[in-house]
Amino acid sequence: MPLVSSLPLIKKAKEKKAAIAAFNIHNLETIQAVIEGASEERAPVIIQTTPGTLRHAGIEYIGAIVKKAADMVDIPVALHVDHCPSFDTIVHCIRNHYTSVMIDGAHLDYEENVALVKRVTEMAHAVGMQVEGEIGKIGGVEDDMFVNEDEAALTVPSEAKQFVEDTGIDTLAIAIGTAHGMYKGEPKLDFERLSEIEAMVDVPLVLHGASGVPDASIKEAIKRGIAKINIATELKNPMAKAIVSTFEKNKDENDPRNYMGAAREAVKKVVKEKIRLCGSNGLADEL
Ligand code: 13P
């Protein structure tokens, strides 16, 4: 079916006390892995790309491939740009089939952040797109963004409420102790803070940095109101492992169909597991 907006998917998941898994993809094989895995699970799904991936693969290529992939299956698929700091890049994405966007002004002070997010939101709403914003600072590494432990800042509930009102965003990414990339120890999520934010904010909440978070914590976060879960590193790791293992078996391997085929299968397996963890399997039939 044609690409859909991510907001109705997220709202349906929230109503069902589930979350939509949003997978960061990098190339054709990872797109196929997500589409095939989600299709087999009958799960609505969000495919997303960071600006680094857009630079690597090209907005036009990603937009065209994901559009075609969505057309070929009968589950709802949304295409979302993740952590984008640039108004212009967001416009470029919207013109290339993207159906929702995240504007990231976390590097700016509050007033500048609000001004940027509001500008994007007004433009996006005018063309029927939804916007994810972020308040607080999620730690870790993603693309060329690096936020160390000292700079990471948990979301303040009153600030979250104010930010949503000031900007008009449709979904809110919050910092409650997760970080992008893998963790050294076990991440401790601030569930009390999550519940406080959920009680004060009207829009659905998004959890970034889900890779390496124990399943029980993901389930608790969903129970307390998280309705979209972002997963990147836990797809990258099995992909790299599958490629390495192909070359370990045959150091002269030179057929991309073999090593990329193995990578696609490894990624698809994790996609299916994460969808079940989020409880979004079967939801495609309720939309
Ligand atoms: P992970 O790499 O920790 O899964 O984070 C993904 C993410 O939040 C993308 O925005």
From TrEMBL:
<dbReference type="Pfam" id="PF01116">
    <property type="entry name" value="F_bP_aldolase"/>
</dbReference>
<keyword id="KW-0862">Zinc</keyword>
<feature type="binding site">
    <location>
        <begin position="230"/>
        <end position="233"/>
    </location>
    <ligand>
        <name>dihydroxyacetone phosphate</name>
    </ligand>
</feature>
<dbReference type="GO" id="GO:0005975">
    <property type="term" value="P:carbohydrate metabolic process"/>
</dbReference>
<feature type="binding site">
    <location>
        <position position="208"/>
    </location>
    <ligand>
        <name>Zn(2+) 1</name>
    </ligand>
</feature>
<dbReference type="InterPro" id="IPR050246">
    <property type="entry name" value="Class_II_FBP_aldolase"/>
</dbReference>
<keyword id="KW-0479">Metal-binding</keyword>
<feature type="active site" description="Proton donor">
    <location>
        <position position="82"/>
    </location>
</feature>
<dbReference type="GO" id="GO:0016832">
    <property type="term" value="F:aldehyde-lyase activity"/>
</dbReference>
<feature type="binding site">
    <location>
        <begin position="209"/>
        <end position="211"/>
    </location>
    <ligand>
        <name>dihydroxyacetone phosphate</name>
    </ligand>
</feature>
<dbReference type="InterPro" id="IPR000771">
    <property type="entry name" value="FBA_II"/>
</dbReference>
<feature type="binding site">
    <location>
        <position position="181"/>
    </location>
    <ligand>
        <name>dihydroxyacetone phosphate</name>
    </ligand>
</feature>
<feature type="binding site">
    <location>
        <position position="104"/>
    </location>
    <ligand>
        <name>Zn(2+) 2</name>
    </ligand>
</feature>
<protein>
    <submittedName>
        <fullName>Class II fructose-bisphosphate aldolase</fullName>
    </submittedName>
</protein>
<feature type="binding site">
    <location>
        <position position="134"/>
    </location>
    <ligand>
        <name>Zn(2+) 2</name>
    </ligand>
</feature>
<feature type="binding site">
    <location>
        <position position="180"/>
    </location>
    <ligand>
        <name>Zn(2+) 1</name>
    </ligand>
</feature>
<dbReference type="GO" id="GO:0008270">
    <property type="term" value="F:zinc ion binding"/>
</dbReference>
<feature type="binding site">
    <location>
        <position position="83"/>
    </location>
    <ligand>
        <name>Zn(2+) 1</name>
    </ligand>
</feature>
<dbReference type="InterPro" id="IPR013785">
    <property type="entry name" value="Aldolase_TIM"/>
</dbReference>
